[in-house]
Write a structure and sequence with these properties.
Elements lengths: L11 H21 L11 H20 L4 H24 L1 E3 L2 E7 L2 E3 L1 H18 L8 H19 L4 H18 L3 H27 L5 H7 L1 H25 L2 H26 L2 H11 L10 H12 L26 H34 L3 H25 L17 H19 L5
Helix pairs in contact: 1-2, 1-13, 2-15, 3-4, 3-5, 4-5, 4-6, 4-14, 4-15, 5-6, 6-14, 7-8, 7-10, 7-11, 8-9, 9-10, 12-13, 13-14, 13-15, 14-15
Keywords: Cell shape, Membrane, Transmembrane, Transmembrane helix
GO molecular function: lipid-linked peptidoglycan transporter activity
GO cellular component, one term: cell division site
């Protein structure tokens, strides 16, 4: 059964909010390129306009493509993007110390951005087709395995920020797909513990400046073997107790011990893979004045810019932190800092409101979707948008570590902008076809 509708029916709230955010982004990409003397130092805003216009065209094209078309090719999209990610590691162009771009001359794309959409479609189909099996451990772990592949490949570039995005996408899609909360909590705790164990030795080293038991346990292979051996023995005894008595307490002991046994080795591997500057970004998150002229500089200057904006800001093109070039990566990672300095709390609230409109309308589309696949696709896109927003805004005000994630729809960059707009096009495709069965 199908209800009559216009082929041009779109969610006008999402369209208007998106266009306004793009306009705001272009304004502050332009502002980021203006020096204190009023000279235009770069023409990034022209490229941003080109990407925004072409991205809007892509968004509208995707809107009018039935989302079920993507269902058929979800697996193909995913494995193609995995091939591109592998190719990037070998043939990609190095920018700022990371091999993230693939292309020729000055033209190129970041496959890691489009991998987010490919993963969303793949997981939406995977969990959507397994409604009766999703609560099984095997089904959950297989989905986690597929989500970890692009994350691992992106981490090897290395790109810590982007590699983290795939986890919330997986967790949100699995949650709305019907996965057990126990499984979701385990993965969340596992990643959190691994991150903590990765940072602690560096934090102790730079703050306390002396070796401690935490450093020895987490960095010395010999001591780590003893620790893991003891935990393994305790896990074996607990497992026997669970098998013989069926007492719930043994289950939770196994739960906790397995988390420790898995997260400590992963933290050791992470310290080998991550660069020193990436680790220091996590360290200075706790106290940026540990390295105020180095890794902590970004956070300190960003907080200064945001705080100096006050209620109404200093006025467009009148910011000092940006125009005196105190803010690094100010057109990408720290574009919100420029906005908050020049437009103040009112401008920041406008950005919050526009993002809230997009998220709330997308959630409405999700709950009104007619099938599990489309509902899970929208859930994944919302997870991507919200995670980018929270991490980017959080790092500019010192509430999150600096990970290099852009503020979608505002930050300078073609690949991230197109990814966001294509994703919103998929949301509106679900909205447009919501009356079809």
């Amino acid at each position: 059964m199908m209800r009559s509708r216009s082929i041009f029916e779109m969610d006008i709230y999402i369209v208007v909010a998106t266009i306004l955010l793009l306009a705001v982004g272009i304004l502050f990409v332009f502002s980021s390129g203006v020096t204190a003397t009023g000279e235009i130092a770069n023409r990034e805003y022209l490229r941003q306009i080109l990407w925004a216009v072409s991205g809007l065209i892509l968004m509208f094209l995707v809107t009018f493509i039935d989302y079920r078309f993507h269902y058929r090719f979800a697996s193909s999209y995913f494995f193609m993007i995995l091939v591109l990610l592998v190719a990037t590691l070998f043939f990609g162009r190095v920018v700022s110390g990371a091999r993230r771009w693939i292309g020729i001359w000055h033209a190129g794309v970041q496959p890691s951005e489009f991998a987010k959409l490919a993963l969303i479609l793949f997981l939406a189909r995977y969990f959507g087709d397994r409604k009766k099996e999703i609560k099984k451990v095997r089904t959950f772990l297989v989905g986690l395995f597929w989500a970890s592949l692009p994350s691992a490949l992106v981490l090897l570039q290395p790109d810590l920020g982007t590699s983290l995005v795939y986890l919330p996408i997986f967790l949100v899609i699995a949650f709305f797909g019907g996965a057990k909360l126990m499984h979701l909590a385990y993965v969340t705790a596992f990643v959190s513990l691994a991150g903590l164990f990765t940072v602690v030795p560096f934090w102790v080293q730079h703050v306390m400046d002396r070796p401690t038991a935490a450093i020895l346990v987490l960095t010395e292979i010999r001591i780590m073997r003893y620790l893991l051996g003891g935990a393994g023995a305790a896990l074996l005894v607990s497992s026997i107790g669970l098998y013989m008595t069926r007492q719930r307490v043994f289950f939770w002991i196994n739960y906790a011990l397995s988390l420790v046994m898995a997260s400590i080795p992963l933290s050791y591997v992470a310290r080998m893979v991550l660069r020193e500057y990436q680790i220091m970004r996590l360290v200075v998150f706790v106290n940026p004045y540990v390295d105020p002229q180095g890794a902590g500089w970004n956070i300190i200057q960003s907080i200064t810019a945001v705080g100096s904006g006050g209620l109404f800001g200093k006025g467009f093109l009148r910011g000092t932190q940006s125009h005196y070039q105190y803010l690094p990566a100010q057109s990408t990672d720290f574009i919100f800092s420029i906005l908050a300095e020049e437009w103040g709390f009112i401008g920041a609230a406008l950005v919050f409101l526009l993002f809230a409109v997009i998220v709330m309308r997308s959630l409405y589309v999700m709950v009104s979707a007619r099938d599990r696949f489309s509902s899970l696709v929208v859930a994944g896109i919302v997870a991507m948008m919200v995670f980018h927003f929270l991490v980017n805004i959080g790092m500019t005000i010192g509430l999150m570590p600096v990970t290099g994630l852009p503020l979608l729809l505002l930050s300078f960059g073609g690949s991230s902008l197109w990814t966001a707009l294509i994703g919103l096009g998929m949301v509106m495709s679900v909205y447009q076809h919501r009356y079809q069965y």
